[in-house]
Design a protein that fits this description.
The protein is an alpha+beta fold and 173 residues long. Helices cover 25% and strands 17% of the residues.
Amino acid sequence: MSQALLLSQEDNGMIEDWGKTAMIYDDAGNYDANSNSNISDMFFKQYIAPYFKYVSAEKDKNYTNYTNYTNVILTNGSSFHVRNGGCYDIIYDINGSRKPNVWGRDKFLFVICPQKFSRSSSLTNSYFGPYCPAASCNTREKTINMCKKNNNYCAGILQLDNWEIKDDYPIRL
């Protein structure tokens, strides 16, 4: 993903200049999955798809709880979804739709933040990285504690450990 985003920047300018569409809510104040799905799909098609090798990218109404989001299947069998959230969330599954589909075990959350704002991520000098509150994930020990509390934060440990799963990784495989 990092390489694809670097290539995309050559054609589309710096990520921080791409803009970010705000999340859409329905009249009752609920997250509008269909509208946000369309925004995510447009983001994927413009900024990621031309720079990424994948087998398919289509709306998937049957995969976990990401109904209507574009499911991108990669050549190695892994997959990801793009979600319009505070940033653009990348929900990456190392083995696609195969089980266990457990956060921190085979599913990981990353963010692409076009604006220089990242209340919810550990991003410092980049606009792509693991989802983890910056103040809570600035050391390995703090990041492990965050992962133990909420498995959405576990990709931060993997990044700190150079993408290896060490013996003290909190999610048993």
